[in-house]
What does this fold into?
Amino acid sequence: MAGKSLRLRYHCVTINSGRKGCEAAQALKDIRMLSPQAPRLPLVQCSSPETCQCTYRHYDDRRAGPRRADDRGEMADPWSRTDRRRSIGRRAAD
It folds into this structure.
């Protein structure tokens, strides 16, 4: 399968407007959008579409940063690690 690229399910983009980006691009700064749902460049509301310097920045996943409480340094749900079984099992070895 030479030449075929793997299509990621949650591939997303952000709009990089640079230093002199228009207000429309600045409003979408740092917002991750799934690639098929991202607006075309230049944006419809762009104040200078003929000289627009906006680009897409690509990401493999829409999610950013650590998602689990342990990864963020927070305390996880206290019930998630507690073994609440009270009775012994049915096996002779229990």
